[in-house]
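Quick illustration for those who missed Monday's session on complexes.
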Amino acid sequence: MERKIHLLSNETINQIAAGEVIESPASVIKELVENSLDAEAKKITVDVAGGGLKKIRITDDGIGMGPEDARSSILRYATSKLVHAVDLFKISSKGFRGEALSSIASISKMTIQTALDDMSGVELDIENGEVIKEKPFARTRGTTIEVRSLFYNVPARKKFQKSAAAISAEIFRTMTILALSHPNVHFELISNNRSSIKTFDLDLYARAEELLGEEFTKGSFPLEFEEGPLHFTGLIGSPSNTRVNKIGQFLFLNQRGVACDPIAEAVRAGYGTRIEERRHPIFLLHLNVPPDLVDVNVHPQKLHVRLRKEDLFREKVSEAVSLVLGQKKISSTEISTPFTSVPIHFAEIPLRMQEEIEVSELSFDQDFTEAMGQAGRFLFFHDGQAKELILVDSEAASFRALFEHLKGKTEGKVESQGLLVPFTITLTTLESAMVLTHLDAIEKMGFSMKAIGKNAFMIEAFPSFLEEGQVQSVISAMAEGLQEFIGGRNYKKERQEKLALIAALYAKRKKRYHTHEAALLLKQLMLCQTPYHCPSGEPTIMRMSYDEIEHFFRENQKNTARAQS
Ligand code: ADP
Ligand code: MG
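Prediction with magnesium ion bound:
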């Protein structure tokens, strides 16, 4: 049989390239806004309908294009930004591969309206990557690119788009990052005819507050660091304002929003022991460095970067952060305090209360398991039957028990405390969008809340395992968690689990246990599906048999005897 080798058609090549660069409506927005930034725009408006699948229109007041440039802008490898291969290493503009417009044009219906200074512009209609109509178009300097019916000819890609809420969240985050990357440019995001981001300030700190809310900026410390060609600027969150995930970390390398683990780790290292292991600091950091120290060409969407001289970066970033934090005298309440140690006796409690505890389902034979005492966060038990000493980490155990209780709550609400005087919390626009979308699920965790104006909520009840002062952070953390949440077939269950995990992580820690409380905790723990580890994987319980204890002493005795002889 004869086999023939074909060259792929241009259309196919572009669609393949599109698969790499254009994953979602948010990636279209990112590419087009970056083009506007490269064109020196001072104001960029993004107008989205139907989650971007129906329409995305980007308008800028940048340098614009003449008719010929406009026509070639949609050709593959057409770029005005890169002439020689060596240029690859000193790129300071955002785009340089010349494939964004051609890719997007191959998977959508596109209209470009653009004009240079002289008002005599051009309008192009593009389908399947080719100009199908061209006419003169009068407008002020700048470019408008409209992308309609995204993915209409790549059904597989269209099918794997996330839920509408998740797409909107991703667009919102993309725009937030772009607006933080260039505080000197005005941004507006209009979604279904409603303005959802509109910047007023042209200063990084003011912009951070506009976009990320006071919750982010309040208590944060400004960072300015300069050494040789390295220039860092930004905001470092207070050690007391940490998060359960890394969503509150915004990193920009030469004004490009990037993910770069070594730098994130270096920031963390700069906090030293000021923050707990499981928590992540929040920060907004602009690193401005010579372009040849950074390789942005490793990732098709340029989100991940490789650093030349990584050690130097790490060292300087850590230094900059610890300098900022060291200068500030951090009050002792801001640092998470180690557990106060509690004497190794249980408080006296009436015997009758101890008897009330119902212990029959316990997997330890309760008749023989006796709560003995507490040291710090550890509870001691003695099992006379199994001849074991049992140690329980009360923190890990209560984390596990509460998490399973919350996630297993399939009917009704978690127990909460109603408030005589409700209070209000303020969230960022994105957070409140997430809260509104998932209000029923959040309320199930024991909250009662009402939207009372832009981004403000009245809290009428909250779960009894929280303190009032934590409510704002817990709701923010939940909103953040939901942003990352995509959910598949078990959407509701997964969502509840996610919220349960966050709520349990924030639950107030009990410092002192009475005998009956210790016994109850052990019982709850043993009723869990996964009793032996807390949800973050730390062990909850340790058993030591008499044999092991005896062995320990005997071995030591032998060693001592040997040493003496
Ligand atoms: P790249 O950005 O990698 O050069 P693109 O496909 O994104 O490739 O864009 C191709 C070219 O089209 C750019 O190099 C630029 O010359 C021109 N262009 C695209 N968008 C704009 C815009 N908003 N304003 C002016 N020129 C633009
Ligand atoms: Mg580009």
